């Protein structure tokens, strides 16, 4: 999808991490203005640096992730008839972008609607967004935990997830989510999981599960970055068994 189409987003996707970021931005902005007016250099410098980090995170949540995932979804070169599952879909940033690339296919999103993870998170908000983006008949947001997906094995052509699995406390639960993602993929189905932590563990588990073409790479500055040791990485893999080449191969 073109950059123009991205700019034409009509829905409201809220703020990742709840309202913490906009509140921090306003508080830091006030602090910087007061410190500058009072010529208080240490709080001015410290507040300005912190404000830059918050501004970068706000860019990711409102713009960067849409651009990055637009490129990733375009890279899948979907036929249009696929069944796509979004794990931890929230208000539909990926789910609806995927649906816009489908014709006869359908997108399913599962979530437990945690408002600490995304502001205004609810199935109703996602359905409203689907209407706003013109794809209500192509998506089904469901209340379900990604550790126990309510779908038979071998159901989806593509499973995607953005900044969601790390919210599961404990490695056993996160491993369970990865196992479930692999289980519900059809043979030849493709997996794309972006997260800002634990992606090395996801990759290792996918190799243990016998997934093909397991790869992991940084998604760069436009995605969440909270330090060199906590940047968003993408894990890709393909479920073996259909003769289709692994995800990402030429
Ligand atoms: C930071 S939000 C990201 C939402 C969406 N993927 C996006 O990029 O806009 C993380 C999402 O994961 C969901 N989530 C957390 N734990 C979950 C679980 N165990 N099962 C399903 N969804 C979960 C939260 O409710 C939240 O909507």
Mean pLDDT: 90
- Tell me the number of strands: 7
Main beta sheet? 7 strands, mixed
| Terminal Cα span | 20 Å
Helix content: 40-55%
Associated small molecules: S-adenosylmethionine
Strand content: 15-25%
For the CA atoms, what is the radius of gyration?
19 Å
What's the tally of helices?
Answer: 7
Give your account of this protein's structure.
There is one protein chain. This protein has helices at 3-7, 20-38, 41-75, 93-99, 123-132, 171-184, 199-208, and strands at 83-87, 106-111, 139-143, 156-162, 185-195, 212-218, 233-238. With 250 residues, it is α/β, with parallel strands linked by helices. Strands 3-2-1-4-5-7-6 form a seven-stranded mixed β-sheet, sandwiched between helices. α2 packs antiparallel against α3, α3 (41-75) runs parallel beside α4 (93-99) and α6 (171-184) crosses α7. The longest helix is centred in the first third of the chain and has 35 residues, at 41-75. The radius of gyration is 19 Å and the shape is globular. 38% of the residues are buried. Mean pLDDT is 90; it is low at 1-7 and 246-250. The chain binds S-adenosylmethionine. S-adenosylmethionine (SAM) binds at residues 16, 65, 88-90, 93-94, 110-114, 117-118, 121, 145-147, 162-164, 167-168.
């Amino acid at each position: 999808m073109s950059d123009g189409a991205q700019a034409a987003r009509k829905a409201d996707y809220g703020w990742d991490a709840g309202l913490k970021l906009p509140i921090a931005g306003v508080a830091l902005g006030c602090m910087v203005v007061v410190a500058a007016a009072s010529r208080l250099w240490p709080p001015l410098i410290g507040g300005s640096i912190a404000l830059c980090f918050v501004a970068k995170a706000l860019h990711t949540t409102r713009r960067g992730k849409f651009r990055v995932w637009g490129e990733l979804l375009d890279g899948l070169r979907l036929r249009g008839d696929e069944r796509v599952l979004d794990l931890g879909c929230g208000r539909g940033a990926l789910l609806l972008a995927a649906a816009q690339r489908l014709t006869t296919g359908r997108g399913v999103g599962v979530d437990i609607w945690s408002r600490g993870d995304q502001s205004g998170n609810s199935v109703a908000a996602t359905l409203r967004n689907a209407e706003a983006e013109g794809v209500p008949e192509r998506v089904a947001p469901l209340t379900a935990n990604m550790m126990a997906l309510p779908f038979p094995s071998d159901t989806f052509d593509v499973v995607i997830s953005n900044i969601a699995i790390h919210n599961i406390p404990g490695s056993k639960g996160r491993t369970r989510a990865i196992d479930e993602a692999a289980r519900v993929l059809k043979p030849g189905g493709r997996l794309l999981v972006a997260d800002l932590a634990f992606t090395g563990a996801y990759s290792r588990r996918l190799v243990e599960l016998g997934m093909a073409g397991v790869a992991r790479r940084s998604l760069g500055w436009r995605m969440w970055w909270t330090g060199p040791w906590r940047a968003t990485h993408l894990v890709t893999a393909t479920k073996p068994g259909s003769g289709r080449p692994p995800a990402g191969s030429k």
